[in-house]
Amino acid sequence: MNGDGVPQDSHKGVDLFVEGAQEGSAYAMYLLAKCLETGDGVSQNPSEAQDWYRKTAAAGEPMAIAWCKSHAVSVSAASQ
């Protein structure tokens, strides 16, 4: 994503985040949500970003839980 050790390619970074999210990585889901929120490497989509933040928080990712709390987005009681 940032070009650490390789040429910077935000689109490839998003592709890798999608792959990781599909494999169940909560951190990849979180990074995908951030990209969708900001439009980095993908078209900005706040609604889809919120859905990913919610899924990520439900998977227990602390940064996603904090994002949901700070944006008043409800997540399952198990992840709070």
Features:
80 residues, mainly alpha, 60% helix, 0% strand
Which SSEs are present, and which pair or pack?
Elements: H1 10-22, H2 26-38, H3 46-58, H4 62-70
Q: What percent of the residues sit in helical stretches (DSSP H or I)?
A: 55-70%
Query: What characterizes the major β-sheet?
Result: none
Low-confidence stretches: none
Written as H for each helix and E for each strand, in order along the chain, the element string is HHHH
How far do the termini sit from each other? 29 Å
Rg, Cα atoms, Å: 13 Å
Number of strands: 0
Number of helices: 4
Helix/sheet category? mainly alpha
- Seen as an oligomer or otherwise, the chain set is single chain
The total domain count is 1
The gross shape turns out to be globular
Percent of residues in beta strands? under 5%
Structure commentary:
The structure is a single chain. This protein is mainly alpha-helical. The protein has one domain (10-79). 60% of the residues lie in helices and 0% in strands. The chain has helices at residues 10-22, 26-38, 46-58, 62-70. The chain is globular. The model has no long low-confidence stretch (mean pLDDT 92).
Short structural description:
The protein has 4 helices and no strands. It is mostly helical and 80 residues long.
